[in-house]
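call fold(seq) -> tokens
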Amino acid sequence: MKFVSSLFVLLSWMQLLSTQDTEIPKYGDLIILVDSSDSMGLKTFNQLKSYISRIIAEMQIGVDHYRIGLIQYNEDIHVGFSLSEFKTKSPMMNYIKNRFLFQGRSLMTGNALQKVHEIILADKHGRDKSKYPQVLLVITSGSSNDEINPSISTLKQDGIRIITVGVKEASLDEMQAMATSPQLAFKIANLKDLNAKDMVTTIQEVVEKTYYVEGTQTPVKANTPVMSELLKLTSSFDVTQWTNTRSDDP
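ret:
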């Protein structure tokens, strides 16, 4: 009967999935949160400015495409530009080049995550999250001087998908705790290994993967060939009748 129960749960979940809107989002709202503390340092910060500009250059920006917000943090956060401020790449790139300046001071990631969450909730121009998922890209250089777990839990409970990039002395444990899944935590030994195209691909994959198996961090695309065939099978499968015929099983 354990097998029957397990199969019943699996088939029920898949049938429920088949009744939901399976349209996969193409774009989202991306907030880039960049460590600007003493542990990052001016030289590395300036290298990351170039990396961020290359990411933006590779993305489709617009009202019906990606929106991007940029924030730097140390003991507090400093908003560069909000999600709704710039609608094209050019002003974003100009801001990063001329006005996105290194700050220094200590590193408090927990405080930054909490305030970023407040900014997201306060967005008066917010879009439908089912069509435009919210993604947070955190770039950090060391261990936080404050507690991060409460802020992480709040962000994840609100469905915000998190990618982390760590440079210098970044804590892999903290990065993996922040990320939606450990596979979305990238510790970089050499800044030359930072590839903007790869990150844009990762962001796109995170936006598109909207279905998660309960109790795991494993995303399941509803429109993959395998899932489509399984959904066809379960849509015509009478689970109740099958379990009744198996009621005599030990």
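Confidence is low (pLDDT under 50) at residues 2-21, 210-250.
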